[in-house]
Design goal:
- This protein is of the alpha+beta class.
- β1 and β2 form a beta hairpin.
- It starts with a helix and ends with a helix.
- Strands 1-2 form a two-stranded antiparallel ribbon.
- The protein contains four helices and two strands, in the order αααββα.
Length: 93
């Protein structure tokens, strides 16, 4: 309920179809829209990132703003915005 109050969009994980398109449409529909996505795309540890966050940014024409969480100092670092170039592999290097 709290996330919906702040404009959160619920995703039914058992039917998570067209999630990328849903978010691209939200960027087009709203004057302001910010989403936070863990690039792993899951709640468990993985070796590689899933590409959904990049496909949303690319489709919506918005930059990816990486953040780093420093648990030791309890700080959040916002890194330089990265506009998608159209080449997923190149953008992640």
């Amino acid at each position: 309920r709290l996330l919906r109050y702040f404009g959160g969009i619920p995703i039914e994980r058992s039917h998570a179809r067209n999630v990328v398109d849903l978010h691209v449409e939200e960027f087009q529909r709203r004057d302001r829209f910010v989403i936070a996505i863990a690039p792993e795309g899951t709640r468990t540890r993985t070796r590689e990132w899933k590409s959904g966050f990049w496909r949303i940014a690319s489709g919506a024409g918005v930059p990816v703003v990486p953040i780093a969480l420093d648990y030791a100092t309890r700080t959040v670092h916002f890194l330089q915005p990265l506009p998608p170039s159209g080449d997923y592999a190149a953008d992640l290097t």
